[in-house]
Amino acid sequence: MQFIDLKAQQAAIRSEIDRRIAAVLDHGQYILGPEVIELEQILAEYVGVKHCISVASGTEALLIALMALGIGPGDEVITSTFTFVATAEVIALAGATPVFVDVLPETANIDPRAVEAKITPRTRAIIPVSLYGQVADMEEIEQIASRHGISVIEDAAQSFGAVYKGRKSCGLSTIGCTSFFPSKPLGCYGDGGALFTSDDAIAQAAKEIRVHGQAQRYVHTRIGVGGRMDTIQCAILLAKWPRFAWEVEQRMRIGQRYTDEILRRISGSATITADMDLQSLNAPVAVFGAKEDRTSVYAQYTVLVADRDAVQAHFQSSGIPTAVHYPVPLDQQPAYKQWAAPDGTPVADALAARVMSLPMGPDLSEEDQDRVIACLCAAVA
Question: Are 35 and 238 a contacting pair, CB within 8 Å?
Fold first, then answer.
């Protein structure tokens, strides 16, 4: 069994992938070709914003967003300590200071109360992460940002296709950023990403920054990067696009079935709640629930287990892969300890010690899912 079955997805759309790639090879516009423009228009309309700017990766999307906002040395950017390193990496690369805060137990997303407590006169932006496919509490975060006159950049690398209060992830804040890494809900066959905004000035800045700060050929109006997304990767996403709505529905159905079956079949299992003390949690398995006002695209299906090493060993012996997203909070990483939260991040610490992700994807069969659930039952028995 694979952690995510990309081969099944490819087999279902192979003829369209081949057709799209052949078209790129025929016209030969490998950089900023017509497929780039076509994809950007489709995705902007889908998200519900004026502009989509495709870029080389989700990391580049975040970095370009910060650069477009003029964030740099002397500025602070508040973000979650419980996420992939790219979220903080770009803040440091921009010359700003990452300010790490704790997360909510029930979603593993950034805690808005912790955000407001960390705002200072130097705070320029907040980067909430929509982790595991479920959007963060964007309304509360936007209200905080509005009160303080700062920008919000949604890190939606894992949540493209999710809905929050009737609106799409990536279209909920000043800027939305996503990743098209192969394993993402919408993934290409290499690196890729996109930045979304309805602000014309930010969009223009992002377009210039991704081509080395060029306003026109060899006229550099700002500092930039080589951050374009390859035409052939855009072509692959265009081939995948007609299937994407179905894949989102499948992810939601499979994720909910995981939750229902784990709670039904494992005695003592529980759904994580806002008031749950994760450090003293005694449930053999705990699951994250999707809040009523939003959906999850389950970029990962992640649970909490008490003895992760033993559970993972059981899965390995059964030939079923697992992963840990993420084992060490960012403010405890060697490169980021200098910015560690002085009052600690106890929820993130407890999550990091217990999270384990199960095989997940739109093509996961019910038979394979039952095999995963049975293995989990046996591992925690």
Answer: yes
**Half-sphere exposure at residue 139, Cβ-oriented, CA atoms within 13 angstroms:** 8
Return the CATH fold of 6-238.
Aspartate Aminotransferase; domain 2 (3.40.640)
| Those residues with Cβ within 8 angstroms of residue 234's Cβ, 6 or more apart along the chain or in another chain | 33, 35, 36, 38, 39, 54, 188, 192
Q: In whole angstroms, what is the distance from residue 81 CA to residue 327 CA? A: 11
Cβ within 8 Å of residue 368, ≥6 positions away: 1, 359
Q: How do residues 141-184 score in pLDDT, each as one tens digit?
A: 999 999 999 999 999 999 999 999 999 999 999 999 999 999 99
* 3-state DSSP of 184-205: CCCCCCCCCEEEEECCHHHHHH
- Domains in the chain: boundaries: 6-238, 244-380
Q: How far apart are CA 212 and CA 223, in angstroms?
A: 7
How many Cα atoms sit within 13 Å of 323 on the Cβ side?
13
- Looking from the CA of 380 toward its CB, the CA atoms found within 13 Å total 25
Specify the 3-state DSSP secondary structure of 33: coil
Q: Which residues pair with 78 in a beta bridge?
A: 99, 126
What pTM did the predictor assign?
Answer: 0.97
pLDDT of 290 higher than 90: no
Cβ-contact 162, 191 below 8 angstroms = no
pLDDT in tens, 343-365: 899 999 999 999 999 999 999 99
DSSP annotation of 163: E
Which 3 state secondary structure label does DSSP give 226? strand
What is the per-residue pLDDT for 15? 98
What is the C-alpha separation between 161 and 51, in angstroms, rounded?
17
- For residue 327, give Cα distances in angstroms to 323, 350, 352, 354: 10, 10, 5, 8
Q: DSSP string covering 90-157, please?
A: HHHHTT-EEEEE-B-TTT-SB-HHHHHHT--TTEEEEE-B-GGGB---HHHHHHHHHHHT-EEEEE-T
Q: For the domain bounded by 244-380, which CATH number is listed? A: 3.90.1150.10
Q: Are 148 and 115 in contact (CB under 8 A)?
A: no
Largest CA distance in the chain: 66
